[in-house]
Design a protein that fits this description.
The structure is a homodimer. The first copy, chain A, is α+β, with helices and mostly antiparallel strands. Helices cover about 25% and strands about 30% of the residues of chain A.
């Protein structure tokens, strides 16, 4: 590994850091960012840490018109003994490359960029918050910057990594949420971009999300776009069902995002001897297992909340209440173990964490 | 109409205008642009013409992460007697609002913005090229600018309109193209964003397009995502089939873009007494009508090429040649009449053009 940054330009004025209990999500950003540029002639060049500052792009930049872009989301956690840990960051950079491939974008050198991100976090180490449940959210993204309105992949890109200290997802303890099964809108379809973490997938969900929130739900559950029958994801997280002692989760069909929390939950459950099957799961089957008294736990997984128990589902006006609207034993154990490993409280027997020096 | 621009800031150095035969598409931009800003508190404010210049956005701007954006594309044509005509521009602005609605974005005042765009074109009138087939391409777009990584509609937006002189689409005369029916990738699906002109729909097509071009085709024909059976669009244009004296085009199902050329072609054909049906059309049916000797013409429609005749289709390895690979009589008459109206050579009996003063 000879990942040496070309340049570090320090910010001349540092921002006041917000209080941990005011953080929320994605509102505050640190003093610096990481930037790299790509052109088809030179490849990726010029990795540098600069002050956090506006990005100036030509109005004809491809990102504004044809949306060529991919992003990632991961967290840095502070341990009780003041170390900074990342959770499986190499998985995020390999997923970034998978997203880029779907979007006709050039790959990055995964190990090299991870090294640069560690250097950035190291520069910003005082921004990693300390209170329980808080973390430093890391947002790498690549945008197409060529100034050209023709319909073709951009020949120029910019990679930017910004950092945002974020609050605890569960300030009032873990509360199981109520979820509406979305019937009209679709998130993604086979042959589309659903397996990629790319901007266009997200704006497409705002209408459905707003409608669900206005109806008193906390999120939507997406069904497959083709038959409107099979479960895909919940909001922007993967979803799991514990039925009669076994755990079931939708298979990676091409239209759902391969979550890193999902992958970790599957590995962890199996290590505990709990069977997990990845397969097509119809919403009908979930309702049926509920009727039979076999639906024990439902939860979603993602970097933001880690594990989010689902207390109620509503589909075609039929509401079901899961585990008395309280968190299930497996959900709780997963949450405690995952967050324990992430924050260094529990021995990392899976070798999932990476320290930032 | 009291659409008064707040401000015109003239560029201090004007660019050299490229020769008409060097224009191509979307490479050159004029000296000025139109800008307006939206915030949830004030609505749309500050319409202004400024020098064409980079847009500076916070790295956390919603456009970069969740892709909230919509755009339009239309053209200004120079007539032989030196007037400047727009073709049904009010349709573009109402489609822009339809796109915005799907993307959870605020509507613009359509008439007002059209007035501003006319003022911009008026300032840039010397940029409207004069050679046959050339025009000034107009690209309005709205981008979400709030600096926030939460998954929610942005509370701030920017509308920008840029202008690009573009060359003739048919420098060597109209050549029917060969098109591949895409089997793997999908462009859009019911319940998704296919009916909106939004960035994420376009980057999603680059992989398929590159593959088709590498295989020697000029574009792909998209099938519906659900059954992979029904014809949707060709590249980024709508598609028509003349079968046994009648014209057929896919209905507006929610996954295809409601093209303004498409709408105009339908109205024009009907005015000529040629029956047009908008309906579901299977690719199987097209091949069958070919076998029966009834497939007379195939063409696609869009602002860029107006009418683009299709000379060959390939689906599952089966190639069919349409009308001997030459342009059909109806396609040609549509092309001549539409471009005639657009450039003021033919009386505009439909009342489709609007003059820029
Ligand atoms: C659409 C979608 N699904 C699932 C996830 C969960 O993935 P991960 O566990 O890697 O955060 C995310 C990202 O958070 C997502 O955006
Ligand atoms: C996906 C798509 N389909 C069809 C069209 C044709 O629409 P119009 O005739 O309004 O240019 C366009 C735009 O040009 C488009 O982007």
């Amino acid at each position: 590994m000879s990942a040496t940054l070309v340049e570090i330009v320090k910010a001349s004025n540092l921002k006041l850091k917000p209080e941990d209990d005011k953080l929320g999500f994605g509102r505050y950003f640190t003093d610096h960012m990481l930037v790299m540029d790509y052109s088809i002639e030179t490849g990726w060049t010029g990795p540098r840490i600069t002050p956090y500052e506006p990005i100036a792009l030509d109005p004809a930049a491809v990102i504004f018109h044809y949306g060529q872009t991919a992003f990632e989301g991961m967290k840095a956690y502070r341990t009780e003994d003041n170390r900074i840990l990342l959770f499986r960051p190499e998985k995020n950079f390999s997923r970034l490359n998978a997203s880029s491939e779907r979007l006709s974008m050039p790959p990055i050198n995964e190990e090299e960029v991870l090294e640069y991100v560690k250097q950035l976090i190291s520069v910003e180490k005082d921004w990693v918050p300390t209170s329980k449940g808080t973390s430093l959210y890391i947002r790498p993204f690549i945008i197409a910057t060529e100034s050209f309105l023709g319909l073709a992949a951009s020949k120029q890109y910019k990679l930017v990594v910004i950092l945002s200290p974020v609050g605890s997802y569960y300030t009032n303890g873990i509360q199981p949420v109520n979820i509406k099964v979305e019937e009209h809108y679709t998130r993604a379809v086979r042959g589309g971009t659903g397996m990629a973490k790319t901007a266009g997938n997200y704006c497409a969900t705002f209408n459905a999300q707003t409608k669900a929130i206005n109806e008193g739900f906390s999120q939507v559950l997406w069904l497959d776009a083709i038959e409107k029958k099979y479960v895909e994801e919940v909001g922007t997280s993967n979803v799991f069902f514990k039925i009669n002692g076994e755990v079931h989760t939708p298979e990676l069909s091409g239209s759902i995002l391969p979550g890193i929390t999902r992958m970790s939950v599957i590995e962890m459950l199996r290590s505990w001897g709990i069977p997990v099957s990845e397969r097509r799961i119809s919403i009908e089957e979930i309702y049926q297992s509920y009727e039979e008294g076999l639906l024990e736990e439902v939860f979603s997984t993602g970097t933001a909340a880690v594990i989010s128990p689902i207390g109620e589902l509503e589909w075609q006006g039929r509401k079901i209440v899961i585990n008395n609207k309280s968190i299930g034993a497996v959900s709780e154990k997963l949450y405690d173990t995952l967050t324990g490993i992430q924050t260094g409280k529990i021995a990392d027997t899976f070798n999932w964490t990476t320290e930032v020096n």
